[in-house]
Amino acid sequence: MTDLPAFIIGTLCALGGTFGYVKTGSIPSVAAGITVGALYTCAGLRIRAGQSYGNEIAILASLVLAGSSMPRAARTGKGLPIGLSVLATYGLVYYGIKLKQVYSR
Q1: 87: closest CA among 64, 60, 66, 57?
Q2: Keyword set for this entry (predicted)?
């Protein structure tokens, strides 16, 4: 079930970006949310199908999410960027461990 976290984080990112657009009209918010959500979903689908590069795509999505949320979390201290940073960190750690397991076989 290593695909489940990717689907959950992807859904949260897509919904969050959409909510940000509805609330503030921010096009970058919806674009980033949908893009990162799509990356996580792609990763989850590849992992579920046993295809290559699923874990790597999940790590890429986590890096993109971390790169956009962590500086804002540090600068503003607001809940949303902190929550996104936690999700990104979870994704990096979880899929980093999974990737290490794949290559250590």
Answers
A1: 66
A2: Membrane, Transmembrane, Transmembrane helix
Mean pLDDT by 10 residues, the chain (105 residues): 93 92 92 96 97 96 95 93 94 96 89
The CA distance from 20 to 54, in Å, is 28
Separation CA 14–CA 77 (nearest Å): 22
State how far the Cα of 6 lies from the Cα of 75, in Å rounded to an integer: 27
Q: Tell me what pLDDT residue 20 has.
A: 86
* Tokens 């970058």, located at residue: 28
Model pTM above 0.90? yes
Cα angle 10, 71, 23 (rounded to 5 degrees) comes to: 55
pLDDT at 40: 98
For residue 93, how many other CB atoms are within 10 A of its CB? 11
What CA–CA distance (Å, rounded) separates 38 from 23?
Answer: 21
**Cα Rg for the chain, rounded, in angstroms?**
14
Polymer length of the chain: 105
